[in-house]
Amino acid sequence: MSTDINGHSPIAEAPDYNFWRDRTRITLSPVAAPSILGLFGFAAATFMVAGNLAGWYGNAQTPLVLFPFALTAGGLAQFLAGMWAYRARDAVATAMHGMWGAFWIAYGLYNLLIALGVLPSVASATAAGAFGFWFVVLAAITLVGAIAAAAENIVLTGVLVMLAAGSTLLAIALLGGLPLVQAIGAYLLIISALLAWYLAGAMMIQSSFTRAVLPIGSRRPPGTSHAIPPHNNVIHFAAGEPGVKIGQ
Q1: Residue 30 vs residue 155, higher pLDDT
Q2: Which of 193, 190, 192 is nearest to 51 (CA)?
Q3: Of 38, 141, 108, 109, which Cα lies nearest the Cα of 80?
Q4: What does pTM read for this prediction?
């Protein structure tokens, strides 16, 4: 709490300060780590789709079978995780799950429109070029996320680095019509999916055992959260009604 040069606090000495301080209650609404759901959804959708792109299985009709699951697991679940991460004040998770969740939703809808004969498939040059530019955008955003994730843990950084690199190669492959590059990019996405599965599993096990069990290379001290630093003044009458919190 701020004080003047004589060590007095005008806020603490205000007539109503103690009255409102003693009657103010703070209610916490803790949430589970949203990235557990987001990473599992991402890992499932990315592994299945990338495996198809790498040529492990499937035919021309396979993407149409995969799209409902990509839409819900990779899209809906991950997008919701991104919105919950917003509440948890996790900027990296908000951006990454939000963007990639939105992409998987769009991917599912795109394949549905292909099945209905409304839009051309990626096999056409026009669609491949447009899809390629989307991977350019995703690669750029994911690269920034990887840089930010370096402050959190090593495994998350690896997830996003592999994802950004795979997206870059898929962009090149789609724009240039290079099947071999597409296969390499798909393998990088598979590595990203496996790392995401490991990280989500480690986070879930840590939550259950209330201690770190599987190493993730965390760069934050134990117990550190994404919460903003504490406020200097809990109650500040000049900023509004009694009990309003203000910034630092």
Answers
A1: 155
A2: 190
A3: 38
A4: 0.78
